[in-house]
Amino acid sequence: MTNVCNQNCPHCFGFDPERDGARLSWEEARRIIDSAREAGVRGLTFTGGGEPLVNPDTPRAAAYAAESGIDVGFITNAQSLTPAAADVLLRCCVWLRVSLDAATPEVFRKTHGGGPAQFAQVLDNIRRLVRRKAELGSRTTLGIGFLTAPGTAADIYGFAALGKDLGVDYAQYRPLLRRRGEAEIDYSDGMMLAEMRRAARDFSGEVYRVVCSEHKYQRIAEGRIARDYRRCYGQHFAMVAAADQRMYVCCHMRGVAKYAVGDLKRQSIAEVCDSAERLRVAEAVDFRDCPPLCRCDAFNQILWDLKDGGRGLDEAPADKGWEHRNFI
Asked: What confidence tens digit (pLDDT) does each residue in 34-71 have?
């Protein structure tokens, strides 16, 4: 919904607001949502770019998407989450996750560039979300997220404890990924996975869960972060409509001109999906531009297994469960 943010995360995948202050108007957002519905889109996540709630039209757009029959997910830093916006989101979202990335003010400064007062405000807003969820009888799944890195590993265990104290439904860990053109991140600290497992053991229960992309951390621990597939098929499942109304192959390539697949100012989403330009870009994805363990990596692991006759989805455990089936 916008490329502008109210925080200053050093490793953000968003645009630089000093050179790109793009923002969707209500009319533009409504047109894109209509186009998504007509194309058969089943799940729509409101995320960055910048902070979605910096755009005052975002709660209205999220509600409109839900009213259109699309499952809505929402990712926010929660700094500017007003009571009115919280109520709208709790009525329309299937799930809502706060990017907290810390358990202490010290680590919050490293991950979000903010001070103790800002950290306290975010925690207060999360508590308000939890309270209003109960008051409204909302079925929205509420969570907090932590992008882990060796420099912030000290907060891993405390993050799970904090989530339980806040009363959210889950705390989620994922590895921080480098941006295009940056040097590789040192993922070699195998102790991070041990800490996550300890946190899950000590805090997970029937009501509150501690979860992580364990397959990614396992590959990190084993030194297997290189890709073992030749093409990216995962991009066909999760394209990005950006605040400049262009579409990109994935979130990691948002704003990178060579990975733009269409322009929603003159095309519908269905036209973009069926276009020769999108197929051309899909064929030209260069993995040297992509961070390891990227958004589409798990998709590709499954898809290449299926393509090569390996273990498929039909062999997944029967009790696996797919709570939010329209968000892969």
From this structure: 999 999 999 999 998 899 999 999 999 999 999 999 99
Token readout for 227 is: 């890709």
The residue segments making up the domain with residue 124 are 1-328
Spatial neighbors of 87 by CB under 8 A, at least 6 apart, are 132, 136
What is the DSSP secondary-structure string of 236-262? GG--EE-TTSEEESSGGGTT-GGGEEE
Name 73's bridge partners: 45, 95
DSSP, res 178: P
- Quick one: tokens of 143? 């969570």
Query: Which pairs count as long-range contacts for 55-58, CB under 8 Å and 24+ apart, including other chains?
Result: 55/1, 55/2, 55/4, 55/23, 55/24, 57/1, 57/24, 57/25, 57/26, 57/29, 58/1, 58/2, 58/29, 58/85
CATH of the domain at 222: 3.20.20.70
Kindly report the pTM of this predicted structure: 0.88
What total number of domains does the chain contain?
Answer: 1
